[in-house]
Specification:
With 139 residues, the protein is of the alpha+beta class. Helices cover 44% and strands 22% of the residues. The chain has helices spanning 6-25, 51-58, 62-88, 129-134; strands at residues 31-37, 40-46, 92-100, 105-112. The protein has a 4-stranded antiparallel beta sheet with strand order 1-2-4-3, covered by helices on one side. Helix 1 (6-25) packs across helix 3 and helix 2 runs antiparallel to helix 3. The chain starts with 5 loop residues before the first helix and ends in a 5-residue tail after the last helix.
């Protein structure tokens, strides 16, 4: 079986994260942008704030809305980590999220143990293709 391209992995991660947010939070982000940068993945989710959070903000309960988001992130983070590890077949070392309740955007940074095996490693910005050829994944 052919290895996937980096674009295929980015699309798969985006689609699966959209489904995860929809299933767990009842809110599918309107757009998800996913890009690999060496052993990191950066994701931007548009319109990721739930209706409950929006209602709290609108009624002047900013602090409570922020607290709700902190707990939602705490709940969903392990699921994001597992989802990405399943798609890529490699360990996630760290996963950081932050949501701006005013703009409705969520940023996610994922740090991987190594680069995923893909057909087109040269298309990953800043990847060290020489290390890939040596088979050590850049470590």
């Amino acid at each position: 079986m052919l290895q996937p391209t980096i674009g295929q992995l980015e699309r798969d991660i985006s689609q699966r994260i959209g489904s995860l947010y929809n299933g767990r939070l009842g809110k599918r982000p309107s757009q998800i942008i996913c890009h690999f940068f060496d052993t990191e993945i950066v994701l931007s989710l548009e319109n990721s704030v739930t209706q409950t959070e929006q209602t709290l903000l609108k009624e002047g309960y900013e602090s409570l809305a922020e607290q709700v988001r902190l707990y939602l992130d705490k709940i969903i983070k392990p699921q994001l980590k597992t989802l990405i590890e399943e798609i890529l077949g490699i360990p996630v070392i760290d996963l950081m999220t932050n949501t701006n309740l005013v703009t409705g955007r969520t940023g996610i940074i994922v740090v991987l143990k190594q680069l995923p095996e893909v057909r087109n490693p040269e298309s990953i910005p800043k990847s060290n293709v020489r290390h890939l050829a040596d088979g050590d994944g850049g470590e």
